[in-house]
Amino acid sequence: MEKLMDGIMVITNFIWGLPMILLLLGGGIFLTIRLGFFQFRYLPHIMQQTFGKIFSKSDAPGTLTPFQATASALASTMGAANIVGVPVAIALGGPGAVFWMWMVALIGMATKYSEVVLGIKYRHKNEAGEYVGGPMYYIGEGLGWKKVAYLFSFALMIQIFASTMVQSNSIATTVEGAFGIPALWTGIIVIVLVGLVAYGGIKTIGKVSEKLIPMMVFIYLVCSLIVIGSNFAEVPAAFALIFKHAFAPISAAGGFVGAGIAAAIRWGLARGIYSNESGMGTAPIAHAAAQNDHPAKQGFWGVFEVIVDTLVVCTITALVVLTSGAWLQIEPNDASTMVTHAFANVFGASLGGSIVSITLFLFVITTVIIIIYYGEKQAEFLFGLKFSKVMRFVYMVAILLGAMGSLEFIWQFLDTLLAFVVIPNVIALLFLSKEVRTVTKDYFTNHFKRAGK
């Protein structure tokens, strides 16, 4: 059994190394070129249609407002990767990793946009009268690859069971370490909180996400900006480190062991891809429920996601770590504690640790809520609406198991299962890129002037 696990780990590490980075980055570059670099050419218009219309209502067909759908999708991407993943990238790749994280975000905008456009184009109304969609629909209908669509859906449904356990374990560990609350009680509390929202369906998830996500981001950004402000003199030096060591190796200093250019690129790309989930196929499941009269307009909200998640929140986290000196003071093995260390220097050990713990708790809670919805939609696609209710209960059990159990076995399968989700989705995006280009061209030809430049 141990040899089997070791073999799976070797295969998984290989897939999620250079091959997956090339697939996701190469796919993003291809889509960027195919769509005429729209995310750069029309960025002011995209900002106007998203940031400028957060509170706008719509009477277009759909279950959620465009921002509610986006907030629901952000609930999945905004999580531990923003607070823990960025310091890990800096610890292993140096400050230059942040530059490559930005690059993959700029390219990933085209991938996320394409997913959302296709999610809207191939969505359906289910038995409950709600709009549903996602890769399983555009793979099965857009390409006629029914078996691949079933494989994608089944893999994601099972992967979410494992992911729910991992997220629950993260919450339980954080809460027990910060407040001494036993893991069992944390698991029960999480089940109650998640259940109250999840059992209300996508409408309740959208309403909760619309209020909770902005509040969480605001609290974290304000506290982070206070930390950066207290080290404001170091900000220019931090940016200099980022740009310089994106193209030049950096020597060891303090707890930092040094890193070459290859490490900066590898960790920056990997963390950027993981953080904003471009190409993972989850975002279009939430966006498919949006009230929208043109797929491209909802696709702009996919670009909005990447901007908020990676270019804003991850950048702020990087500046917290770099300006505070935490990246030099903490050993790479403890990189996940860098933000806590930086906060403790300004707010005190107790308050600083509590701020990070509470923020992580809220981030992970919202992640669990939305990924359970994603899992339900896979069960619905495969076995019908009634079975999706059964899977909701199964995911609640996963929360309790994750809070209490060891996850070494689960962790080894998590990335393997995710590969069966990402690979068919990105390949489908490439094959359907002509349709995305047609939708984009139609918008900028026939709707752009009316929407206002």
Note down, in words, how this protein is organized.
This protein has 453 residues and is mostly helical. The protein has a single domain (15-50, 66-445), classed as Amino acid/polyamine transporter I (Up-down Bundle), CATH 1.20.1740. Helix content is 78%, strand content 1%. It is built from 22 helices and two strands. It has helices at 2-15, 18-34, 38-41, 43-49, 66-77, 80-93, 96-121, 135-142, 146-179, 183-198, 201-230, 235-244, 261-276, 283-287, 295-324, 326-329, 338-347, 349-383, 385-404, 408-431, 433-446, 448-451; strands at 124-125, 131-132. Strands 1-2 form a two-stranded antiparallel ribbon. A hairpin with a 5-residue loop joins strand 1 (124-125) and strand 2 (131-132). Helix 2 runs parallel beside helix 20 (408-431), helix 7 (96-121) packs antiparallel against helix 15 and helix 9 (146-179) packs across helix 20. It is globular and about 55 Å long. The mean pLDDT is 86.
Label this structure with key terms:
1% strand, two-stranded antiparallel ribbon, 22 helices, single chain, Amino acid/polyamine transporter I, 453 residues, mainly alpha
Distance between the termini: 61 Å
SSE succession: HHHHHHHEEHHHHHHHHHHHHHHH
Overall pLDDT: 86
What is the tally of helical segments? 22
Radius of gyration: 21 Å
Query: Which of globular, elongated, flat, extended, rod-shaped describes the shape?
Result: globular
Q: Under CATH, the topology is which?
A: Amino acid/polyamine transporter I
For the largest beta-sheet, the strand count, sense and barrel status come to: 2 strands, antiparallel
Query: How are the strands of the largest sheet arranged?
Result: 1-2
Instruction: Provide the structure class.
Output: mainly alpha
CATH class label: Mainly Alpha
Report the strand count. Answer: 2
* Name of the CATH architecture: Up-down Bundle
* Overall helicity: over 70%
* % residues in beta strands: under 5%
